[in-house]
Amino acid sequence: MEEQQKAAEDEKNASTTHAEAPKEAHLILKPIEEEMRQSYLDYAMSVIIGRALPDARDGLKPVHRRILYAMYDMGLLHNKPFKKSARVVGDVLGRLHPHGDSAVYDSLVRMAQSFSLRYPLIDGQGNFGSIDGDAAAAFRYTEARLKKIAEEMLQDIEKETVLFVDNFDGSLKEPSVLPGKLPNLLINGSNGIAVGMATNIPPHNIAEIGQAIIHMIDHPDTDVAQLMHIVKGPDFPTGGIISGKSGIYSAYARGYGKVTVNGKTHLEEKAGRQKIIIDEIPYMVNKAMLIEEIAEYVKNKVIIGIADLRDESDKEGMRVVIELKKDAPSDIILNQLFKHTRLQTTFAINMLALVNNEPKVLNLRESLIVFLEHRKEVITRRTQYDLTKAEEKAHILEGLIVALNDIDRAIELIKKSASAEKAREGLMNAYRLTEIQAQAILDMKLQKLTSLEQNKIRDDHTALLELIKDYKDILGTPTRILTIIKTEMLELLEKYNDSRKTEITDAENEDIEDEALIENTTMVVTITQAGYIKRLPLDTYKQQNRGGKGVIATTTKEEDVVENLFIANNLNTILFFTDKGIVHWLKVYEIPEGTRQAKGKAIINLLNLEPNTKITAAIPIKQFQENSYLLMATKNGTIKKTSLIAYSKPRAGGIIAITLENGDSLVNVLLTDGTQEILLATKNGLADRFHESQCRPIGRSGRGVCGITLKGDDEVISMVGADPQKTILTITEHGYGKRTSLEEYRLINRGGIGVINIQCSDRNGPVVAVAAVTDEDDIMLISQAGITIRIPAKTISVIGRNTQGVRLMRLEDKDIVVACAKIAREESAGIQAPE
């Protein structure tokens, strides 16, 4: 029992001690928002300095610097054999870079791609990716070594020219920056996204940047405007064309700006068809994705007129062929390619880099100054290193010369010494030498005692003294350091100078509208009853030598005829209204140009229409004016009047012209001046004539008002303008019809039930079409079985309203008339017929 109590007491004491332990720990109380803020700032600065932003001095991020240094340390120079990329990646990971292998290899690959860097720093062997976005092969399959130009970045690194710091585990030293004989930040550019900031520095031509540096040395007060006479602008490895200089000047003056880069193209023609050839694309654009993008826009009918698209690029260079359809306007299609695809891109320049480990936006002059200051420090440290080595060597040679001047005594002293240490001490005391000098005498080979060797030692000493004097003069004369920088830059230009790849045009880029490229000529537009459309130059008709005054010739189907024909300029707009109440826009120049015999192109292939949609009206518009109106009529008797201005802003997918109720559809649309009379005709033979002033204008998406009151299953089948010079033609389902004078239809109010237009008896059947015609018009009747008949309007009797009409078309059993088209004539559109 006592043992159990003792055990329980021990357990209680142990638990108490354990519970009180945290009270003995050292706790720091801190608001969580302050801790989060400090931790995030530490993380942000780690990303900014250690990963994402380049150093303004050598233009490299840490991973790129470590790769180049590791390859240099491995002896992978431009004139040495290639080694596996896996070996390079492993060496960088194991010794210098505490991140993943993909980050290292991706960076290595990019430095080897001629389409990514203006002056690649790594010479890659194997599959290092392509401009089509193909990924590089795995690092076990590729090999790499340094390019000669990369070795310029590392030159003199062994001469203590830059500060070395501990690597990630403190076991090795790595350079904090490379000596950077090349202005790499500008010639190769850089891009990266840090925390809260990003950099995007474009590449430049080495000749221009080199000349700018030389100019800065000769004229320290040079400003950005003067530098721009030398540095024309970015020079991308993929070429292209930069439009305008305002964005370049902004970037060079303030450190940020935007430039528009276009792909370079040219035109070829074969067998009457033109081809747009893409020779160069904007920087960082994936060629394969660009081709897919163009194909998608062609498929969606955003770009019209392209017949074929293929990539014929090879080792000789880029060649993307865009084959156009016959008579397709190449300048418009090229403009659309620039407007919609990445054949034109905007490069946002942000010259952000690390200066003294702090992110700073640099203008052109400041970036050159940072490079010059870095090179000054490198050359100063290099000269100091060379001076120290020269002085050390001269010091040794001075000791050797002292011994050589009294060589017999020196040898005697050495021979009598009991040990090397005694000999060294004896030489130091006898000739007042330092320990280093005495040791050098002891280490001297007997061959140095020959007269030739003795003279060589004295000559070397004299030369060293001259060299030491020169080094000291360099260190004491800042202008000499600048002269060395200038000389080295001239040597680099002699080695690596090349011409620009990117052109720069003076014209500022603006969104060129297609209209600006179109000659505003007069055209004749024809629309057939089956929905085919084309345009022809007006001169086509004036120059015909045959054909007479008849209807316009076309190779449509036998039952198809030209229903609408009008004259318009290329820049005019045609409004197409669908039965679902949507309006679409089409410029006249967007309609394919054809010949008098061509049938044209289906309208549905030119407009972005919904499935099962029918065009019910096509209205040509020369100018959108306030005093013009669009009058619409629906199947359910609704009529709506809206100002033409409301339809002046086109959209790709069309807009709502009228809001329709369920089961309703748009029948027709008329362009009016607000003073016309209107006739609504129904299926059951009624008609309502009224003045359009009874219909006040409403908004574009409104529902409208009642135009005619319908009874039973009746519906509106037509709306026509009440022109006293024309008669009203009515056609019924069973092939009967008549013409009636407009005076027969008395003027009544909007919304009435109307008056009898024709007797819809069992013989006639319901009304299928109503139109306003003259004696010069021809009429085409079309039956359900596909039978057509063409009738001159003047042969149809003009009789009263309340009649049945006469037979116009004899039909087979169960066949009915389904449509009637008024055939458009050339002379009715004001076209001169040939003589």
Question: Which descriptors apply to this entry?
Answer:
single chain; 835 residues; alpha+beta; Topoisomerase II, domain 5; Gyrase A, domain 2; Topoisomerase, domain 3; 19 helices
Task: Describe the protein's architecture and organization.
With 835 residues, this protein is an alpha+beta fold. It folds into 4 domains: 34-201, Topoisomerase II, domain 5, CATH 3.90.199; 264-342, Gyrase A, domain 2 (2-Layer Sandwich); 373-495, Orthogonal Bundle (Topoisomerase, domain 3), CATH 1.10.268.10; 518-829, DNA gyrase/topoisomerase IV, subunit A, C-terminal (Neuraminidase). Helices cover 31% and strands 24% of the residues. It has 19 helices and 40 strands. The chain has a 4-stranded mixed beta sheet. The protein has a 4-stranded antiparallel beta sheet with strand order 10-11-13-12, with helices on one face. Strand 12 (306-311) and strand 13 (320-324) form a beta hairpin. It is rod-shaped and about 155 Å long. The model is unreliable at 14-22 and 543-556 (pLDDT under 50).
